[in-house]
Amino acid sequence: MNDKIRTNAVDHLFDAILTLNNKEELYTFFEDVCTVNELLSLSQRYEVAKMLREKKTYLEIAEETGASTATISRVNRSLNYGNDGYDLVFKRLGILNKNTAK
């Protein structure tokens, strides 16, 4: 785990997020916390990660999401060398299966 992000402020943010009960509350909170572009960037990275796990090509991902190849490469690095956070979520959502697992 990256010690650079482990701060009291980040802990407080995560504690706040964990209090939210549904998608509508998440929208309300994140619309206040993030700019539209920040939220769209986060969601784009998530979609890129999902598509990479589905074995889509960089070209397919760029065309479908509008992500740059730099963003796709950055997400790919996280999938291959990160903390497996994306895969944890994919498994819990039933998105990751034998064919898409790393």
Please describe what this structure looks like.
- The protein has 102 residues and is mostly helical.
- It is built from six helices and no strands.
- Helix 3 runs antiparallel to helix 4 (58-65) and helix 3 packs across helix 5 (69-81).
- The chain is globular, with a radius of gyration of 15 Å.
- The two termini are 19 Å apart.
Biggest β-sheet description: none
Total count of helical runs of at least 4 residues: 6
Secondary-structure arrangement, i.e. CATH architecture of the largest domain? Orthogonal Bundle
What is the percentage of strand-forming residues? Answer: under 5%
Compute the CA-based radius of gyration: 15 Å
Helix content: 55-70%
Number of domains: 2
DSSP strand count: 0
Question: In terms of structural class, how would the helical and strand content be classed?
Answer: mainly alpha
CATH level-4 homologous superfamily of the largest domain: TrpR-like
Query: Cα distance, first to last residue?
Result: 19 Å
Mean pLDDT: 93
Return the string of H and E elements.
Answer: HHHHHH
Low-confidence blocks of residues = none
Overall body shape: globular
